[in-house]
Amino acid sequence: MQMLTCKHISKKYEGDGYALRDVNFSVPAAGIFALIGRNGAGKTTLTRILATQLSPTSGSASINGIDVMSGAGSLREIIASVPQEARAINWLTPRQFIFSYLLWRGYGHGDARRKADEAARKLGISRFMDTASRKLSGGTKRKVLVATVMASEASVIFLDEPTTGLDPLSRSELWDTLSRLKKDHFIFLTTHYLEEAERLADRIGILENGRLMALGTLDELRGKVKYPYSIKILSDYSVAKPRKGNMIKGVDGFQQIVTTEDEANRISRELIKKGVRFSMNPLSLDDIFYYIVKKPLEEESYGDEKERY
Amino acid sequence: MAMKRSGISQFWASILANSIYALGNYPAMMVSMFLTPFSILVVIFFVSHGTLLTVAIEGGLIMTMITSGMSLQTDLSHLKNDFKLQDMVVASPTGAGMYLFGMAISELVYSIPAIVVLAVLAILFTHLTALAWLILIAVMLAMFAFSTCLGFFISTFTSDVMESWAYTSIISTILSALPPVYYPITYIPMPFRYVAYLSPATYAAEIIQGASGFLELSSLSAAADWIVVIAITIIIGFVAVKKSRWREE
Question: Which residue among A77, A166, A180, B132 is the one 20 to 30 A from B171 at the CA level?
């Protein structure tokens, strides 16, 4: 199986601290791998190292067996990257931008034109292809960038926060595109939107302060949490503290119980009897993320902060 | 099976994106590039009552080449920092050398009108010999290579287009204000003349002015000038290819 492997990668910027510390993991290079983390967690640094744009201070990495340092030339044949804050060049139309990018990748003119049109059609941006990029909406601009890398022959695509700043509808459209794209590409995605990772990713890595805190499928990440079920009380009703687990109570009356599956079932039966409106779900990625990075929720909790989940 | 890639396409991509498409959208850019060497040419012509016209035309040709390099630095900084183009190209099969070559030639596209008009003026007014023309072309190419390599090298280190403007200003002083490109070096009084020799463009200008008979230049001085021009071009070319921050450290 083709794999993405990082071995003890560290990165220290000159005059700064460590952006990455001993990052060590291996995942199948298929589907979507989402890297989530707070601002400054090291997501972009790791992405740039893997996309051969930045050298690590120590450690090594490979994609499909090709080393990102010694095999950069070969790797660049199969990768494409949309960096964070990348924009289609203002003075070019999407057609000109995608066409130029494909020429940079070494396509002949005929192939580049055909592939640019094909990618635009797939992303639903054909009607904007001859409009100057500066006149396009933010969502369309991002789609142009995704179309640009999608039009290429690259089988590994790096997308660094591709949906940042998009409205919910544009974001959802881009998610649909990525869902289709992942069928025949390996997408390395970084995002701040946990919902995005939850919806799209086959595997998720959580990076915090340059360290990889957790890695796995959503179910595997839930398995790392002591209390993997969540009950959110939707009525104005004061719930008793659970036998197992913790209760989170916000100043605005928000109540959430995190507990085991058995206890969640017991509590839910009680709530049904009393006619209390509630929702019961496995923990969301949001909850898991907060647990793993140990970021205190702003709401006041009855339980011990560290033992919340 | 690996895709067969066309080096010509990779080269042509830079020219299309950085000049041909840009000119199509913003034609004023060509007017700007056209005016830069002529503005000084006109001033020199009037101030010298026409006596320095020939040397100023040759100087204009050299400055057009140097301006290309300075513009390259700004353009690449803008593309790198505001559009993240360099990162996109790094993570592609195009290498630094091909990107530099294509982008350098793209800057030359903007200079074509100025070069054509200056060349016509040179034919009409300077009456250069065939050898002097060859020397002029060789010096122009050397200055183009030098300035574009320098521009590329600097652009890979900039983190903001504002920073690149600062570099442009510094380079512009060293390469265009300091050297006596539009007039003979003998017009600069001693000891200030030594300051002019800090700029590679001074040596280029001396070679041209010597070849066109405007300056009496011994064979030894001409050879020394050539050595400086060639050496600095090779060094900066080497630095651009080997030391530019293509993949960041």
Answer: B132
Q: How far apart are alpha carbons B84 and B248 in whole angstroms?
A: 13
Q: Do A86 and B90 touch (CB under 8 A)?
A: no
- Which of B115, B37, B25 lies closest to A95, judged by CA? B25
Q: pLDDT, tens digit, for every residue of A52-73?
A: 999 999 999 999 999 999 999 9
B127-134 contact pairs (CB < 8 A, 24+):
B128/B211, B128/B212, B131/B211, B132/B211, B132/B212, B132/B213
Superfamily of domain A3-222: P-loop containing nucleotide triphosphate hydrolases (3.40.50.300)
A105 and B84 in contact by Cβ < 8 A? no
**Ranges for all domains in chain A classified under CATH 3.30.70:** 226-307
Cβ contact, residue pair B248, A96, below 8 Å: no
Of A52, A87, A92, the CB nearest to B21: A92
Q: For domain A226-307, give the fold.
A: Alpha-Beta Plaits (3.30.70)
Are β-strands A255-259 and A79-82 bridged in parallel, bridged antiparallel, or unpaired? unpaired
Q: Kindly provide the ipTM of the predicted complex, given to two decimals.
A: 0.87
CATH 3.40.50.300 in chain A: give the residue spans. Answer: 3-222
Nearest CA in chain A to B84: A86
